[in-house]
Fold this protein.
Amino acid sequence: MGMSVTISAAAEQDAEQIFRVQYLCFQSEAALYGNYRIDPLVQTLDSVRAEVAADCVFVARLGDEIVGSVHGRITDEGAAAIGKLCVHPRLQGHGIGARLLRAAESARAGARGARMFRLHAGHRSESNLRLYSKVGYQRVGTSQGADGVPMIVLEKQAQEYATTA
């Protein structure tokens, strides 16, 4: 009998596993851009611990193993910034990313009152862009990451959350 993947808020003791799965998952993004200095790969364990303590972080668990995560925070203008969505390569394509995204949206739309959700995706990250479009995000602009990677900015109004959840 197989186990099912559960989604829950991250706890302090999850930081090391989040750090490891994030590092593993973002290798393919780094290869796509030929840039191994992207934020998720150069982030320190202490920085991940600080995010877990201060931000909204959800994890996907398969038994005791963390197999995915997503980070979210409220910006000064009241938007929920969602980032570092990742799912272990062996479990991609099974809806776990969408479930993590919905958990972050739900937490930010409910208790924190976000008016909109915003995320950034690399311009070559076609599978990520497909996922975000499928769950209601629309392209609203471009930016450049601190690491030099061209990014597409996507947004979704918080009231749209109810229709895509």
Remarks:
- The chain has a mean pLDDT of 89.
- The first helix runs from residue 15 to 25.
- The chain is about 35% helix and 30% strand.
